[in-house]
Amino acid sequence: QVQLVESGGGVVQPGGSLRLSCAASGSIFRFNVMGWYRQAPGKARELVATITSVFVINYADSVKGRFTISRDNVNNTVYLQMNSLKPEDTAVYYCNVQTPGLYWGQGTQVTVSS
């Protein structure tokens, strides 16, 4: 079993920044993929960014140039640095890990509002 604990959500004004963290524990294979997804009210969950344990990165077009995903392989932690936040970034953000089973965190709310 794998457990994921997220932190770092909150309320921020447009143009502001937030940093999300997600720590994974349990049976995690050396090669894995960690990622961030988000779900806005009334919408489907969507990809934000993923990063493999060998640092191959993928971003959704909507966040390219504004968000940065990174990870610490020693501590099995993934981060999402979010800059230039927009109201449309408001959502519950979930982290996940594929190792090879798929596990999800509980989600953390990000609200971008003036």
Structure at a glance:
The protein has 114 residues and is mainly β.
Essential attributes:
0% helix, 11 strands, four-stranded antiparallel sheet, 114 residues, seven-stranded mixed sheet
Could you explain how this protein is built, in words?
By secondary structure, the protein is mainly beta. Strands 2, 4, 5, 6, 9, 10 and 11 form a 7-stranded mixed beta sheet that branches. Strands 1-3-8-7 form a 4-stranded antiparallel beta sheet, with no helix packed on it. It is globular, with a radius of gyration of 13 Å. The protein has strands spanning 2-7, 10-12, 18-26, 33-39, 46-52, 57-59, 67-72, 77-82, 91-98, 102-104, 108-112. The protein is 0% helix and 55% strand.
Per-chain topology:
Elements: E1 2-7, E2 10-12, E3 18-26, E4 33-39, E5 46-52, E6 57-59, E7 67-72, E8 77-82, E9 91-98, E10 102-104, E11 108-112
- How many helices? 0
Low-pLDDT sequence parts: none
Q: How far apart, in Å, are the first and last alpha carbons?
A: 40 Å
Task: Indicate the mean pLDDT.
Answer: 95
| H-E string | EEEEEEEEEEE
Radius of gyration: 13 Å
How many β-strands, per DSSP?
11
Largest sheet: 7 strands, mixed
Helix content: under 10%
